[in-house]
Amino acid sequence: MSIELRHAAACYQSADGEVEAVRDVSFAVTEGAFVSLVGPSGCGKSTLLSAIAGLEPLSGGSIEIDGQPVEGTSPKVGFMPQRDQLFEWRNIWDNVTLGLTVRGEKDAAAYAHVSELLERYGLAAFAKKKPCQLSGGMRQ
């Protein structure tokens, strides 16, 4: 997967007026590359990641993934926020499969893939546990 940002900009409205979160950011990430966004708190890192994931629109510029413009969310992109977003009343399996449930996914292969991923990351034994029963790292 390749990602390209061209002159990305993001602004928010606040009670005090417009806030410029990101201004004129351009970069490209080639397939297989490992990239880190580093900067002080409030510099727009999370805003850029949210825009790349299609969760927040840009106010200017463009983002392409594999040469296609980002216009909303895509099943190609996963996003892990700074803080986990697990539902405390759902067990781990139900949290992990929530996206499939919301989409009305009935394909057994999709659920088998979830089982494989839980196994790969050492979480299969915790599938029926609640989030409060996992460590912080396991929750992520």
Describe this protein's structure:
The protein has helices at 45-52, 92-96, 98-102, 108-120, 136-139; strands spanning 3-14, 17-29, 60-65, 68-69. Strands 2-1-3-4 form a 4-stranded antiparallel beta sheet, covered by helices on one side. The two termini are 23 Å apart. It has 140 residues and is of the alpha+beta class. The chain has 5 helices and 4 strands, in the order ββαββαααα. 9% of the residues are buried. Strand 1 and strand 2 form a beta hairpin. It folds into 2 domains: 3-69, Rossmann fold (3-Layer(aba) Sandwich); 92-139, no CATH class. Helix content is 25%, strand content 24%.
Number of spatially distinct domains: 2
Mean pLDDT: 90
Secondary-structure element series: EEHEEHHHH
What is the correct CATH architecture of the largest domain?
3-Layer(aba) Sandwich
Percent helix among the residues?
25-40%
Give a short summary of the structure.
The protein is α+β, with helices and mostly antiparallel strands and 140 residues long. 25% of the residues lie in helices and 24% in strands. It starts with a strand and ends with a helix.
